[in-house]
Amino acid sequence: MSNNVPLIKLSELSLLLKGELIGEDKVVSGFKALNKADHGYLAFLTEGKKSAELPQPFNATLICPAENKPDFVESAILVSDAYIAFAQASRCFDQHYN
């Protein structure tokens, strides 16, 4: 098993997820909870979660449905189903370690 942290470009991830990248094409190294996510990480927001719970400024890249993207989020991958996108993106990082 490698100790290297996997880095995935957002443009590649958005293609895999069949989503729309909003913002700069950065690299990310994994997921963190909404309240702990920062630069270089992903977080996901589902239809049931409220954007008011997000810290401001929000510096991570958010995976979320287009209609749920908060105005103050500068980096996002807009998808039709955040749960499926989370599962698919998680596999990208899991494959690095297996």
Explain how this protein is built.
The protein is α/β, with parallel strands linked by helices. Helix content is 23%, strand content 19%. The chain is built from 2 helices and 6 strands. The chain has helices at 10-16, 82-97; strands spanning 8-9, 20-22, 27-28, 42-44, 61-65, 76-79. Strands 2-6-5-4 form a 4-stranded mixed beta sheet, with helices on one face. It has a two-stranded antiparallel sheet with strand order 1-3.
Write down the overall geometry.
Answer: globular
- The Rg value, from CA coordinates, equals 13 Å
Question: How much strand?
Answer: 15-25%
- The number of helical elements comes to 2
- Helix percent reads 10-25%
* Major sheet size, sense and barrel closure: 4 strands, mixed
Show the helix and strand layout:
Elements: E1 8-9, H1 10-16, E2 20-22, E3 27-28, E4 42-44, E5 61-65, E6 76-79, H2 82-97
Which short descriptors sum up this protein?
98 residues, alpha/beta, two-stranded antiparallel ribbon, 2 helices, globular
Briefly summarize what is shown:
The protein has 98 residues and is α/β, with parallel strands linked by helices. It has helices at residues 10-16, 82-97, and strands at 8-9, 20-22, 27-28, 42-44, 61-65, 76-79. It has a 4-stranded mixed beta sheet with strand order 2-6-5-4, with helices on one face.
